[in-house]
Amino acid sequence: MTSPARSQLPVTTPNGEVHIPLPRRVGMVNTFDPPTDATMLLPKSPSQEEEERRRRRAAWQSRIAWIAPALATLSLCLISLTRAGLWADELATWGNTTVSWSELWLQLKGTDATIGPYYVLIRLWTTVFGDSDLSLRLPSTLAMAGAAAVVGLIGNRLGSHKIGLLAGLTFAILPITTRFGQEARPYALATFFAAVATLLLIRMLGGFTLGIALAYAAAVAAVGLMHLVALLMLAAHGLAVLITHRKLLWRWTPSAFAGLLPLIPIVLIGRRQQGTQIGWIPFTDLHGIEAYGLEFFGGALIGGAIMGLGMAAISRERGAVVAICLGLLPVALLMALGSVTHIWQQRYVLYTIVGWAVLVGILLAKRGLVTAIATMAALAVLALPGQVEVRKPAFRYQDTKAVVALIEHDYEQGDGIVYGLTDRGPGVLNRDVIAHYLPPGKRPTDLLVDRPMRTDGWMVSSEHQDVAARLGDTKRIWVLRLGDYQEPLDELDGTKKAVLQERYDVAGSWWTTGYTVALLTRKDPS
Known about the structure:
Elements: E1 8-13, E2 16-21, H1 46-78, H2 88-96, H3 101-110, H4 116-129, H5 133-157, H6 161-173, H7 175-181, H8 187-206, H9 210-226, H10 233-244, H11 249-260, H12 264-278, H13 286-295, H14 300-312, H15 318-338, H16 353-365, H17 369-389, H18 400-410, E3 416-419, H19 430-437, E4 445-446, E5 449-451, E6 462-463, H20 467-471, E7 476-482, H21 496-503, E8 504-512, E9 515-522
Parallel strand pairs: 3-4, 3-7
Antiparallel strand pairs: 1-2, 5-6, 7-9, 8-9
Helix pairs in contact: 1-5, 1-6, 2-19, 5-6, 5-7, 5-8, 5-16, 6-16, 6-17, 7-17, 8-9, 8-10, 9-11, 10-11, 10-15, 14-16, 14-17, 15-16
């Protein structure tokens, strides 16, 4: 007997077993429900696998293009970062970290308001990390590493990781990059923000959006907050927009102007301080122009090579136009202004190295791999003497650590010290050298000071006019002069020279980079 079909249901009745057909379920399909976490993987075609590998490789190359320059710059700037002592301008940075916030505001009303935001930044930084030479210089080191990364991103934005990598590495090996990456001043931070603004400009040229415009305005403001003169960058950006995308000019201009608005108070205050801040700078002459070519990049050979390669990269391409405008126009404008006013300083246009580095990257990216590697190796060799030179204490304008070592070596309890206030250079800052590097127990007594530095809104100290009374019976007196004096008491201000010559003999004289040091001993009263 055959078994009933599965579609029938056996039912027992008085008349026997009856098989009743089951009702059909219309539209119901029995399927296997896999676990909810199961994933069905379909095999990829060879072309899809190749495309995925290409995307991963491109993403990795784009990251390397900015990471490698940043690490290279960071490494080079960290080498011998604290070998040289702080020179006068850096000591001014340090001095503003030692006063109260209320005293700092008073200082900025009188001088250096144009870089006041930098002083505020460093004041906050040292509150957390201390005021050692390492701590004071580290923000500049990090800023230069960041600038190198942005140069790499600019190359990526121009369409090639090769441009980014080669431009970023060019920026990293320049001695001037290391020089200002090891200085507690605002120029490295201004360079970083100028690089960011240039990257945003290139993005704006590729497609304007409100977000990019606002970010660009913020970057412009940051450049001006670090150093007002660096805003000559806008002339370069404006010319690049005019050449490459003239219709964008009416959108770029409001973006740039928006970045300038927060700077108006600083500009107004800075105009009143112009004479004291930059009045000492000589007018631009042929010697200054020649010095730019020989010294700006860190040496004549590396500078000539960078400028030669950069000039060879000039074209109508968007990136090349932006880069050459940034590399040349601010320098030309500042030199022209420097011929009629006291403003030309090479470090004020430090950020222009971004343009030159991008130009080198553009040129080498178009060459073969062997040519690019060989050229970069040659540039590194040409940069090596400059890299060695910028780390020497004598390269700074003053070798402050040598001065301190001289005094500390021969110091005796009860020694006094006299400073020259009208010396060749910022002699008013001489007191900072001793205050920063010598602990109170090993510090000669400041015999003439009445009002300490940075007090009641006065950056400079005031001295007692009765020199003879203040010297008293002090047996040994150190004399610290800024500049090179064959006779350590020559041109010493006020009555100091006459009184010291009358009462003391010069027991010893020393000359270091930027300083003259002398030890005087009291004459025998008989």
